[in-house]
């Protein structure tokens, strides 16, 4: 019986890359981690084989992975895309950047899909984090707190609509709505900073709702919306009533801890189906 195929990984910050490495190792797979400099460190992935490289060193990363026999790769973790001018690509990276073309100047999903296409052309298939970790994407339902009232449901519906419009132009995945008012939408700053900003803009009365959803047409292989205990802590500090996120499309980190934090803070945690958001 042949040994399981090795797995490559482009790793950013946070706990997801480590969970992915553990899951792959539990399947008997050798894990080869490219830690993205500034977001992850190679030494943090011991005992797995790892190397730390800049975004622009993708040519070196591909050569390193191919030498290890990697034909399948997963991307995970928090990382902020650098400006094109700061990439400092290696020689192979320059050629790859030329193949990516104008997508490098557009939104995150545009460049992700272009990178996935290039990797496939190089003989490396990209898989989603959900292919390695069962239950990573919750099904529709109320996970914590009380059922949202009519006002909260209205805010959720408004958030789904606005986040969908943002995602259609590849801008962001999150929005905060309070009493029908859009307090803020996610840009390059990320969800945590959005929550802090909206806490400063909150109105009197019932608090708002953070709504996260997958961008329309987005690849499900990388950069899915993610929430965890830190999201709940920020939402509580900002005076929000709850967090609603797209079922089967949002990564829920540390599920038990996240649900417990929402219960303790008195927040609802709702996984919704965009086609039927009022169904628990």
UniProtKB/TrEMBL annotation:
Annotated LpxI N-terminal domain residues: 7-136
Domain of life from the UniProt record: Bacteria
Pfam families: LpxI_C (PF06230), LpxI_N (PF17930)
Matches recorded under InterPro entries: LpxI (IPR053174), LpxI_C (IPR010415), LpxI_C_sf (IPR043167), LpxI_N (IPR041255)
Domain LpxI C-terminal: 140-269
Gene3D superfamilies assigned to the protein according to its UniProt record, in alphabetical order: 3.40.140.80, 3.40.50.20
PANTHER family for the chain: BLL4848 PROTEIN, LPXI FAMILY PROTEIN
Name of the molecule in the record: LpxI family protein
Species this protein is from: Plastoroseomonas arctica
């Amino acid at each position: 019986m042949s040994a399981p195929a090795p797995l490559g990984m482009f790793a950013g910050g946070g706990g997801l890359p480590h969970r992915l490495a553990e899951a792959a190792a539990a399947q008997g797979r050798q894990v080869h981690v490219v830690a993205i400099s500034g977001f992850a460190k190679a030494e943090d992935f011991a005992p797995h084989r790892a190397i730390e490289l800049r975004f622009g060193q993708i040519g070196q990363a591909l050569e390193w992975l191919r030498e290890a026999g990697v034909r399948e790769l997963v991307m995970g973790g928090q990382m902020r895309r650098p400006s094109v001018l700061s990439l400092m690509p290696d020689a192979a990276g320059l050629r790859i950047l030329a193949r990516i073309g104008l997508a490098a100047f557009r939104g995150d999903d545009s460049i992700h899909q272009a990178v996935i296409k290039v990797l496939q052309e190089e003989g490396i298939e990209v898989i989603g984090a959900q292919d390695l970790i069962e239950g990573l994407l919750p099904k529709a339902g109320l996970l914590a707190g009380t059922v949202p009232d009519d006002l909260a449901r209205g805010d959720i519906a408004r958030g789904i609509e606005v986040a969908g419009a943002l995602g259609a132009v590849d801008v962001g995945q999150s929005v905060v709505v309070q009493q029908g008012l859009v307090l803020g939408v996610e840009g390059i700053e990320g969800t945590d900073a959005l929550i802090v900003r909206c806490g400063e803009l909150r109105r009197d009365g019932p608090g708002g709702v953070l709504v996260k959803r997958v961008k329309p047409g987005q690849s499900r292989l990388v950069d899915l919306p993610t929430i965890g205990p830190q999201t709940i802590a920020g939402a509580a500090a900002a005076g929000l009533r709850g967090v609603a996120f797209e079922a089967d499309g949002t990564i829920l980190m540390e599920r038990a801890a996240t649900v417990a934090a929402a219960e303790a803070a008195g927040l609802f945690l709702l996984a919704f189906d965009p086609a039927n958001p009022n169904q628990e």
